[in-house]
């Protein structure tokens, strides 16, 4: 019985121990079926130990919810975990984190841990009940394991679950579920507010006391590109990382929803002549999608704006600007739409 998690760094296929852990597997399968984990971040990654996800609103919410609570708000957020003799000591072990314990009874929610390395059981084991194992995507776990993290072990660049696919479900749907698989939802405004962008270059990493090797530089650039690509998927377009960028067009995101075209043009015009400035809006509602394109007459003006305005505060929002390869496909769509409107 398998679940496929499509993440921002690759796919993970998890085989479930449905006979040994039927309650835990039911909880995980049904949460995946309801698309509960969509856009949930890996918010705790400790190298060679574990990676953790499970609350789609982290850090606004940190406890997660059982599927019974998701379906019926009157039900407890936690459910009782059942020990099965399996310990999370092998790379790829998937377990529910113990969120609380009363006497000898352990409880969990939707919080899942994936073991990132083979552990020595003589040194103790991680708290949790194993209910599955990653059988495809161990190389993706290696990528997760190498993520650069902050002081709280959260990746500096977002690693998120994009979609969940239930490949096999041996359990009856719980009471309150419709039986139909819902479509993958768009990220909510709350989720969008928790996005982390490519801030690695601005952060002094504590473990970087040595000069970076070419391999480390290459891996860092790959992580930056993945972060930018994720940001654009949030907005609603999957960019191409191989297309040639437009050298005189600036991409601006994380805008305040109230920021207007003319506001941006006034602010960015000090770097040079602007031929076009457009905040992109939803076709149906007309609401700002919180990103924009600014086209300058020449490349030099665009570069000046890029170096001066990344991280600037506009309408109480700290913006991000870019003109890298990771936005080129979205820029091409915008450019084609401009031509059609003329």
TrEMBL record:
One Pfam family hit: RRM_1
Catalytic activity: [protein]-peptidylproline (omega=180) = [protein]-peptidylproline (omega=0)
Entry keyword set: Isomerase, Nucleus, RNA-binding, Rotamase
Segments forming domain PPIase cyclophilin-type: 6-166
Subcellular location, record wording: Nucleus
GO CC list: nucleus
Recorded family membership: Belongs to the cyclophilin-type PPIase family. PPIL4 subfamily.
Function: PPIases accelerate the folding of proteins. It catalyzes the cis-trans isomerization of proline imidic peptide bonds in oligopeptides.
Name the UniProt record assigns to this protein: Peptidyl-prolyl cis-trans isomerase
Organism, as annotated: Cyberlindnera jadinii (strain ATCC 18201 / CBS 1600 / BCRC 20928 / JCM 3617 / NBRC 0987 / NRRL Y-1542)
